[in-house]
Write a structure and sequence with these properties.
Number of strands: 0
Number of domains: 2
Structural class: mainly alpha
Distance between the termini: 21 Å
Largest sheet: none
Shape: flat
Strand content: under 5%
Number of helices: 4
Helix content: 55-70%
Length: about 80
């Protein structure tokens, strides 16, 4: 089953059931803001500065939210 079909079916649920489903899925994810204890502040700042330089120089092109979501769903445009 793909993400579009799952989403379509989930949206047919009543609001309370959708909220429970959303909470269940959310809680199953790892905390994206949890930083590995192995990464120092200096390393994090260095990586952020490197990413900024890559974007500024045009070495990489950032994705919009819509582009990211489309790619995650497997709809490469």
């Amino acid at each position: 089953m793909n993400i579009d079909r799952i989403s379509s079916e989930a949206l047919k649920l009543d609001p309370k059931s959708r909220a429970i489903l959303a909470e269940t899925i959310w809680e199953s994810l790892e905390d994206p803001y949890l930083v590995s204890p192995d990464v120092t502040d200096e390393e994090s700042i260095s990586l952020a500065m490197k990413r900024d330089e890559e974007i500024e120089s045009g070495t990489v092109t950032p994705l919009s939210h819509d582009e990211l979501m489309s790619r995650l769903r497997g709809h490469e445009d």
